[in-house]
Write a structure and sequence with these properties.
Strand content: 5-15%
Radius of gyration: 31 Å
Order of helices and strands: HHHHHHHHEHHEEHEEEHEE
Largest sheet: 6 strands, mixed
Number of helices: 12
Helix content: 55-70%
Shape: elongated
Length: 366
């Protein structure tokens, strides 16, 4: 499973607070009533244990929800959060299992009904919402297994027959959870692949306009500093008209490869139009770094290309815009950044072939 998909599935665990609260209230209120009716201190203990374990579950969920959404969650971090969710859920399930045993030990008829209802609610909710099979299977085994054992050893033939139905229900939980988790995983993987395809240029494999816009919006929202280089090919139309569209497509692919070779791992390149490319330099860089990348891009594109057995030469003009850690107004900032880069590119093209411009300074690359 791709790490991004596993992270998303784990993150979905933390959207079950309403269901957790409802089941917790049922256990706490029910055990408190039985404590009053029977005078058994065990039910008082279970009431307190239900409060503590439920509170721990909700604290864990609240902490996850409050984490900074701008900081990407790594797979290792997601798995640590998952363990916190699982262990608090297991603790609550153990309290429920002890409640089942205590109600059958005291032969509290109302407690029998409560136990059955809580076990069914917990396991059915887990099957439907817990998209991690190991958590669902463990919860269900402990809860249903304890209830089935209590039925089996109750001495009542009807309860003993019901214990068999409970075991059949447990098997259906296994099968249902496994099927549902598999279906959701396939759906998320397919959605991710479609999303990736929608953000990439099919010809060059680089990001397309939508992908670049998303990168810029995320960077502007988070306050990440970056530099945006807009490139327009000089002489591409003549090559495309003379040699044909197949040759033009091959030339665009080669340009994309050359630009990709200029970047660091954290930077991205895109094709945002017919013969328009872009490079996004991410993170804090030293003075003149964007200029050096632009100069290398001009030199790389100016070198000869071999297209359908012929040597062709083109050039490129580059406009540069930078963003130094502003936060908020992501859409406006991204739009302003694109506008500045386009304006700089226009000035570079007006100055002639093989130029790049940043701010008001024009540089020429020989």
């Amino acid at each position: 499973m791709p790490p991004a998909i596993e992270i998303e599935i784990i993150s979905r665990l933390f959207g079950a607070a309403p269901q957790i609260i409802c089941i917790a209230l049922g256990l706490v209120i029910g055990s408190a009533i039985m404590a009053v009716q029977t005078g058994d201190p065990l039910f008082t203990f279970l009431t307190a244990a239900g409060v503590v374990t439920s509170t721990l579950r909700l604290i864990n969920i609240a902490a996850f929800v409050r984490r900074d959404p701008r900081v990407p969650l790594s797979l290792a971090e997601a798995r640590r959060w998952e363990k916190g969710y699982a262990y608090t859920a297991f603790a609550f399930t153990l309290v429920l299992a002890v409640l089942v045993v205590a109600t059958f030990r005291s032969n509290h008829q109302g407690g029998h009904v409560l136990s059955i209802g809580l076990v069914m609610a917990l396991t059915a909710g887990s099957c439907l919402r817990t998209l991690r099979y190991w958590i669902c299977a463990t919860l269900s085994t402990v809860a249903i297994g304890t209830l089935a054992a209590a039925f089996l050893f109750s001495g009542d033939p009807l309860y003993q027959a019901l214990s068999i139905l409970l075991l059949v229900y447990l098997v259906s939980i296994y099968e249902g959870s496994d099927h549902m988790v598999g279906q959701i995983e396939e759906l998320l993987i397919a959605r991710r692949e479609l999303d990736l395809a929608s953000r990439h240029d099919t010809l060059t494999g680089l990001l397309n306009r939508r992908g670049i816009d998303r990168i810029l919006a995320e960077a502007c929202q988070s306050g990440e500093p970056l530099a945006l280089l807009m490139l327009d090919l000089d002489g591409f139309k003549q090559v495309n008209d003379r040699l044909g569209h197949a040759a033009g497509d091959d030339l665009l692919r080669q340009v994309g490869k050359r630009l990709s070779g200029l970047m660091r791992p954290e930077d991205v390149a895109g094709r945002v139009g017919g013969d328009e490319f872009t490079i996004v330099i991410r993170g804090q860089v030293g003075p003149g770094f964007a200029d050096s990348v632009a100069a290398r891009a001009v030199a790389a594109v100016s070198a000869p290309f071999e297209v359908i057995g012929q040597t062709v030469r083109i050039g490129t003009s580059v406009g540069i815009a930078t963003l130094n850690g502003h936060v908020g107004g992501a859409d406006d900032l991204a739009s302003a950044l694109l506008s500045q880069a386009d304006a700089a590119l226009y000035e570079a093209k007006r100055a002639g072939r093989g130029q790049f411009r940043q701010a008001s300074v024009l540089y020429s690359v020989n």
